[in-house]
Structures
1.
Amino acid sequence: MVKYILIGSLLFLTACSDKLVRVMPYEKEYFAQDKMSLSPIAERAEQEGHVYLIREASAGGESAFQGGCGCR
Amino acid sequence: MQIKQFMLFVLSLALLEVTSLASDLKDKMSFGINTYNDNADVQVYSPTFALYKKLSSQWLLGVKMRIDAVTAASIKNGSNATHVDAVTAASAKESVADDVRYAPTAMLTYDDGDNLVTFGSYYSTENDYTGVAAFASYVRQLNQQNTALGVSASQSFDKWSPVFKRALPKDNRNETKIDFSANQLITPEFSMSAVYSYMYSEGFLSSPYHFILQDSLAKFENYPDKRTGHAFALKGVYLLDKDDSVNFSYRYYMDDWDIKSHTSSVEFMRDFTHDFTSGLRLRYYTQTGSNFVKPVGTYGVSDQYFAVDYRMSAFDSYTIGVPFIYRMKGGDKLTASIDYYKTSSNEYLKNWYDVGSLQSVFTTLTYEFAY
């Protein structure tokens, strides 16, 4: 199931490239702002990623690397 | 065939060097301290340091160092000695003790504006555990940088060295993680991102210290020595108006231990002034139990696997947090965050920590500047 969702997403994003140019360079000013980041504070994302990795049994869903430790 | 592919890969990297597109690489440095405190007597103070140095217009060398200073690491034993109890922290010594984890990371990044390649390695050492890992990622910008496709991989080779002599069935824990990501700008005010992660672990996957003591049964915790997990996440950020935005995410996780989880979060951010941004973040997490965990006090001698860690049981958790971003002159930036985390209560938490639910506060404080 996950595989098909992934393949479908990639096909959607790559197969119709012309239609995916929706934002011109001069329209991207908001994406340069901190509040428009998916992780507005990188250090917090790293810290909470570590906390959740230790305190919960799930992982993944982000491209960031989390090193191992004995507390896991 | 593999050698040929490797040579083509090296050649492609060399070709990347001759392109001269714009990149956002810059020399910068950051100092910070992160903290973690919970009601199970665990306190962690983590100074952090990061240095990024441009080697050329397209190459960047990065070095990061994190030190986890763990104090009061001994965790309360369960109060009910007739059931699962007497659990100590994985990295703790007896009584009130300190443990210090040193975790340096080095990475090399290439960025020509359309291609972003990163290689890195990680090492960590503490009383009873050594972690070694390598990671790499590649992100390709497409469609006039409206679309970004990425792939990343990491491989770790960790090793247990228990503080007391115990012959583990295996002393290694190796983990493989592969991520595929796609990010798409939808409008000038809205972008979406999708990430799929494949994770595989093998080796000694439980704690070497946790054990079960019930009636005539005394066993160390024992999990299967392999685990395969999948995670799929959707994330988005949307500009509500000139000063306000909201970012949201949902993740579904599943593995072959039958643990399934749903994680959702939403965060509102507001520019209170030109220099200061803050907001509010909420997160909800819920997971099912593993297929080998049993109710407290019901394990038998014929069981193959034993779990006393609450993470193998079903529970929920909630997080509420506040971020702070202060931009200074010259591009310097001060960021901070404080989050409160609470789990639902379950019988394992009660027996391990003698608390109804686990409650913690974790913070970050970082000063970042260009040089």
Note: Chain A is about 40% helix and 0% strand.
2.
Amino acid sequence: MADSKTAMSTPVIEVNNVVKHYGSVIALSGVSMKVSQGEVLCLLGDNGAGKSTLIKTLSGVVRPTSGDFLVEGKPVTFNSPRDALDAGIATVYQDLAMIPLMSITRNFFMGREPLKGIPPFRHIDFKHCHTVTHEEMRKIGIDIRDPNQAVGTLSGGERQCVAIARAVYFGAKVLILDEPTSALGVAQTSMVLKYIHQVQQKGLGVIFITHNVRHAYAVGSRFTVLNRGKTLGTCAKGEISIDELQNMMAGGKELQTLSDELGGTI
Amino acid sequence: MAQIEQQTTVAAKPDERIRQVGFLTHMMRRPELGAVAGLVLVVVFFFFAADPSMFSLSGLMTILAPASQLGILAIAASLLMIGGEFDLSIGSMVAFTGLIFGALLTNFGQPLWISIVFTLMLAAVMGAVNGQIVIRTRLPSFIVTLAFLFILRGLTLVGLKWATGGSTELRGIEDVVGDGLLRQVFSGVAFQPLFNWLAEHDLIEKFDNGVPKVAGVPVSVLWFVGITGAATWMLLRTRVGNWIFAAGGDPVAARNSGVPVDRVKTGLFALTACAAALVAIITVLDAGSTDARRGFQKEFEAIIAAVIGGSLLTGGYGSAIGAFFGAIIFGLVSIGLTYTQFDSDWFQVFLGSMLLLAVLFNNFIRRKVTGER
């Protein structure tokens, strides 16, 4: 069903049967998933399901023990996060996206500073940087007075948005968002979710990792559920209800019983 | 009531998310603010407590000469601290590179330029080794460089005894260096003609025979100012500067963004060692000798100057200009006390208090900057 929309184009990222062992610990024992342009794939799973390891694999931090990893249909091997970035895969980590003591501009261009001038006097083109930062922030509705202000002064939601805007600006094809809403309040969460939707409209592929089913259901086009290092299944939005998704993620019917006891609050 | 409400909405209009940034807050964002305030305090104190001759030209030069030597180390130390690491071996590095430099000139009879180049290169390699050990073992740089503090100090003693046949002081460097342009770059005073001219026109103090009391500006002061400028430009304007802040601010986030954190840190360790070698070359040429106690405790003084200059011990924040002022404060206090009624034994008390104040102040500022509560 869901594939009818995306079947024509090759998925931007596709992994098949990825396995990752840390010594004797099996973190991933055969995970398969794919994401195409213009869709939000939600990766759901409880703690220890293997979400973090999967992200680390996709973003080049760790190398899988075995399995296929295809970017736009071609098999790839990443040796560092830089390789993944160059392939257009940008990862926004929950709390490691920005450096609080540095200015918004410096954070925005960190690792990709535009230079001008002749070699011994090459320096960062700060005028250009400030203009771009201001403009990009305005686009996502964060009106910063001074791009020189430290990122630490921004709220958690704003920081996530700045990190996403940075990835988009630098031409990411796929965005991996690692629990971007888990530490945020209601208003901030809706701000981030709105922006994720906006990014999807632009035609980027988004992998949205969360364990909050409501957040996932709000923006997701497809849902892949992980459990104990394996893919439990993938469903499109129309095929599954929010409650079924919750149960699938919790790995059984027990939660339903608990939910009934608590009056349907989970 | 309605009027008040209206006023608040109008005031909040430009941006409802961020409060108006006051001039004071804006100034507080500059890391060197504490050092400038400290400098003003210290100058005011000595202005009233010290003999006026302290603020004469010759008095100032007496303060600036040691301050500049410490300052060269302090600037390198502050860059390394911003990058998130420490180097406790710089004092011993001064002694060790001083020995290498002296031995190359005397025992091996090398010309000055070869001795200088070789000393700087050796320092860079040793600094890089320090850095690589820290990075590969993931041990705190504090402990790794503490080991080198003793290793290098010990090697200096052993080496000096070998080079001199049993003494802890290597003399006779003056005789083998000769006089040349290269030597003038690293020792003596600059702007002599200017000072002579000023003395002739009675603009500065002179002796009865017409020779100015201050012959010129010590070259170490020029190096100090030049290095401050270069370091500031590098930190604030270049890509490497951005990487230094990032590596110290949060190495994981920096690495995730594609910053070569390990290379930046190794480079900073090499740079710090080179600064130590530069100070060694300047002081050895000035004194014409080197001994085992060269650079003793300079590692602490350099770190203190960097902290007074606003560098955070946790990395990611600080400035080279701050370290510049930190070193001058250091020089003012250490030399200045001799111009006052106070016993100069008070120096260390003063220094410790200054350090404590600076750290408290820096923490306060950091919270202000990041909006932490």
Note: The two ends of chain B are 31 Å apart (CA to CA).
